[in-house]
Amino acid sequence: MAPPSAPRTGPDARPRRPRPEKKRRRPHGGDARPGPRRRGRGLPVAIAGIAVLAAATASGGAIAALTAEREEPTGSSRPQPPPSVPPGDPVNVATGGEVAPLRRVVPPDVLAVGRGSIPAAKIKKIASLGRVRDVVAVAGGAVQLQGRQVNAFAVDPSAFRSWTPPGTAKDNGLWEALAADRFVVSTAAAEQLGLNRGMRYPVIGRTMPNLTMGGAGPLGLPGIDMLVSGGSGARIGLVPNVAVLVNAPGVSPAKVVKAVTRVLGPGTNVVNLHEYQTPGDGGRPSSYLDLYKQAATACRGLSWTVLAAIGQVESDHGRNAGPSSAGALGPMQFMPATWRAYGVDGDRDGKADIMNPYDAIPGAAKYLCANGAGRGGKQLYKAVFQYNHAHWYVQKVLSLARAYAARFS
Q1: Are 146 and 195 in contact (CB under 8 A)?
Q2: Range of the structural domain that residue 51 is part of
Q3: Which of 408, 171, 167, 157 is nearest to 288 (CA)?
Q4: How many domains does the chain have?
Q5: Confidence tier at 45 by pLDDT (50, 70, 90)
Q6: pLDDT tens digits, residue range 359-393?
Q7: Which residue has the higher pLDDT, 214 or 36?
């Protein structure tokens, strides 16, 4: 969706008498972040697809690591460009662990896994499909770690962090570790394999480098439990451009699956990521949908669909987090003065961060509740009107809320 362009107006809000400060903007359309997820039959297919194509990097690689004459010399740590980046393009291969700051969240809707490298022309065609907003291609394959086969992606940490759940995306330490050529795993893989941060482990592919475990967190992708840097992926022998993630707001993921399948043809596994429940870190929500639902429980009578509708209109669920021309910030677009009155430390990290969805969404619920949103009816209308003094805005939010209720009922 196009970022908001109209200015916000209004003075600061006070706890007892909240005052509007939301900016006017053109109405946005679009679909919700992930819907209720179900464990379906597609998950084993996605895992099998990436494992089959990477047989040479896993089982064959274990032998190659012991016998191949072209194995990288011991002590060589010169980083190589990620396999998914065409030669000559600038890449972020940070030797000091530096990564670009998180500027937006890009929720993946569809994952496509090929049986080999997906041609650049087909990736470009996917990007040109109607309503497709973002596409990222990554190297991947199955490797052996602690005696278990693990599906891994090789990524650019600065770019890929946006595609992970909000809590993971904002964890700078995780991405700095990845940029420093350490590997990152899902929380579940860390527990099941007994991995400890800072310890070195052999990762068996075409070669067998010893890599340091840099951290763990929810990755948000079914069957993918390991991330390595582009340089490590090239050394291990991961298959370039073997997987594509697609973000297409405002369209049914099932339709995107069909369109991507037509582009890639037979032999490719295309998965609707909305059909899988990705557990959060320590039980925390791992998607905007979950955050809206959890935040609404703090205000009796307030439906999560209202928060979701506001989140869509204000920032397209974190994609356009500001600052606006009037200085509004974050996924729920608060003015700093209003945030000082209504900000919430939702993730209990000791600070209420206007840019953090774990804090901003509960803050929006608190603001609405203080204005009587939980009483519904005319009072809900007035509460949303306080969020942005525009009748079109209220009508847009309530219409989207009804659409969410119908879709997720």
Answers
A1: yes
A2: 42-281
A3: 167
A4: 2
A5: very low
A6: 999 999 999 999 999 999 999 999 999 998 889 99
A7: 214
